[in-house]
Amino acid sequence: MIELYNWISGITEDGKLVGRVDPVEGKTTMICPGATGGKSWNQTAFSPRTGWIYSPAQEACNDLIARKDEPVEGRSFIGGNWISKMPPGKTSYGHIDAYDPVTGKKQWTYQYKYWLLASLLATAGDLVFTGDPEGDFFALDARSGQKLWGFPTGAGNRGSAVTYSVNGRQYIANPSGWGSLAGGMGGFYADGVRADGGVAMSGTGGFACLVLVLAPYGFAQTMQELIARGAELYAKTCATGYCHGVKGAAGGAPRLASRGFDETYILTTTRVGVTGTAMQAFGTTLPRRDLMAVVAYVATLNGIASPNLGRGMPVAEVPPRVLPADAKIGRELFFDSVRGFARCSTCHALDGLGIAVTTPIANIPANVAALRELVTPQVKTATSGGDSFPALVLTQGVRETKVYDLTLPPPVLRVFPAGTVKVADGSAWKHSSVLGAYQDAELASILSFLRAVVTPAP
Ligand code: HEC
Fold it and tell me: Which of 11, 244, 382, 402 has its CA 20 to 30 A from that of 393?
């Protein structure tokens, strides 16, 4: 069902694997599909009308460095370093295929630029329904694979639609909302594309908004490229139905288009957020050049064709940093997608990537033992309505208190109206509790990476 595979050359009719590639300990082997590729949990559909089976797949490979591993209770057990890597000239992508299950012959393919993590639903009207991570829930012609219809749901799709009928009328219900391990993994780590996930939750009105930022690595050189990139970031981050709507036309949050906003106002609001609302301070979560791209785009929605970003205009791309070999491995591990929310970059931003939940890393522990024993004085205990949890305080103002709830990764941003939360020093939370996914040798590589990129505290 997938196009890129090399771990075997085939399967015999009685199910035996032919030409199996076994990774060799300590050596790098490119394996396709990788840990996150292939056909997975999102279900296929079968139509008795066409007699065909419809199946989603995602193409992703890993450079695997196998390592001897003994299982240790409470730790993940993955037998090696799985580094996201595609064969030369290939990027990660997804597709939906129709097969005749009797002959195995492929009938059609619907290609898509990112992964498709939602399930498929086939109906008697010869339609196949599913959704994409950009938020579109859509229908394909079951016989040709042609896209017939789509609806922007405002959030990425990774669930399963159902169909039912009431009084003779057929309905389709579909959950939408990005997230989960695979979604948070930088789901579509095509070369040059990355995804940062973060969950923002306001404690005031039971409102939950999933924030997904999709940003190409490649750096915009011209204003036009910057605006195009801002448009994409905006579509992924700000345009959900809960928030500002497509092209700033308003959703749950105010309209942004044609408001007469200027660049300075847009930059300030985007950077520091709006107190008392779900508008976050994106200056803390978006890399600077992405922030400027969004500002430039929103300026164009306000009639400014050629936004003036002044000193904020990002200049030429910083050439990629050359790291020593061990630090390079550490870098992969720090942002490792396979570890999901257990990776360091769930809470730490470095090198323009990751999510800055806590203050930038400035002190590097001397060795792995010191890293494992790290004390975390900034983590406090917040209590609200009889519920206590470990918290990192972001702001404590007259009107509200904003904290990250560290109960379980990923940290959740919670906003409490003044007087509804108490914060006390000290917490039972331990930094070591979030390092369980890493072995000592891996943490040693990560420390090499930190030594190579962190500007030490004065
Ligand atoms: C669930 C969130 C979370 C994850 C995951 C996490 N950390 Fe942290 N880390 C924190 C918090 C919170 C602090 C700051 C605590 C304080 O200063 O009180 C911190 C502090 C640190 C510090 C000290 C920085 C300084 O300047 O004092 C280092 C170093 C560090 N983390 C490294 C790592 C590494 C390496 C990983 C991955 C192996 C990792 N962290 C994973 C939350 C996390």
Answer: 244
